[in-house]
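Recall from the previous lesson that a structure prediction takes nothing but the amino acid sequence as input. Here we apply that procedure to F-box domain-containing protein from Rhynchospora tenuis. The sequence below is the only information supplied.
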Amino acid sequence: MASPSSSQTLTLTLDHLDHDHITTILLLLPFDSIVSFALTCKKFKSLALSESLWELICRRDWGSGTVDLLLATLSENERREFSYRKLYEKVSMLGSLSCRRLICKGGAFPKPRASHSLNLVSDWLVLFGGGCEGGRHLDDTWVAYVGNSRTIPVLTWHHVNSGLPGGRFGHSCTLVGKNSLILFGGINDNGSRLNDTWIGQILYESPYNIKVLWKPLEVGPYAPPPRGAHAACCIGDCMVLVHGGIGLHGMRLGDTWVLDLSGHACWHQMGTADRLAPSPRSGHTLTWVGGTHMAVLFGGRGEGYEVLNDVWLFDVEGLPRWKELKLNLAPEFLNTMPPPRVGHSASLTLGNKILIYGGEDSQRRRKDDFWILDVPVLLQSRAGLRNNTKGIWKQLNLVGESPSFRAFHGACTDLSGRFLYVFGGMVDGYPQLAEANSLRFDGESYQVELILNL
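The prediction returns the following tokens.
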């Protein structure tokens, strides 16, 4: 008598388990493995493809809050055809974006600018500072309500005046928790690098009226050296991670600092046991990926003015340490990762995917491409669940209006991770200008949407 195959043995073993136990097992598996399980036998197909299981998977991987906010963005047609399994598949296989320029109404608008900050706090965009035409560095704060991102055809900007930090560009402004912004450093009108730390408290006077109250944050005598064009992100709800930038005398920095806000605010310089760390740079990005204990650094300009496209991971589990993501650099793989760039944006979108947009190369040629760094695929590769790094990067197609070639713009995602907002930056100059690489400051606003085709 022939012995049963491994798949038959698996089926016989699982056949003795109830549905709740099998569901618990499936929730430990990645997407591909769950789909493969559904093909094991007809009996398990209905369980592995059930809506209840895929709702649990969506909430497991993206968080219940994100899923609920995403559901609020669905159109009536999308709701009629909605399926959690289809949603998860479309997010996993994301390949396209759409873009539209937002119309601004009202009598006042932010000036065109670059190297400013743009954050989304609750349902509001918050814009601060930046450089503008004439070499001025701005100290203004603007807010605009976006609410349900799908239904906002226009923006109305409001100028906010209360306790402003001094004018600067190349600063960092990081959302901590739900209602606080931490602003650090930057470069002022005199070209001086700064290392002051500010907190911006969001005050809700009504559902459609807010204020931003800026005040210096007392951090004690120990702080990072002055810098601008550094990268920063929030770690959890009470820490801000800062790396690199341009320090005194134009020197690129490679140090890593953490601002701990869990008690009395204080800065700590982070060292690593193996001394492995990203090289000094400026104009790069740091993106925190919730649920992974990891921040992702990408690109920037090195101390030899070379432009980079390397990826580094800062892992806060155990001893905090940097680790470089080694990719296959064989010629056939070079077109599967973004070219080197500085002054780009990196935003965490739905499905723990980091969306890279724009920037410029070593010749200061600006870019208009969109790339996805797929963090779940990256983690599977690191865990040995994939044989190679293929699929970690993917270039996305853009449908509709393009936000054009730009660098040093501001960008942030809405709370669902489905929509990206872009404002300002340096863009190509007017056609009548004789210079090949002429520049101008931009003041347009755009909304970019992940195309899910639900």
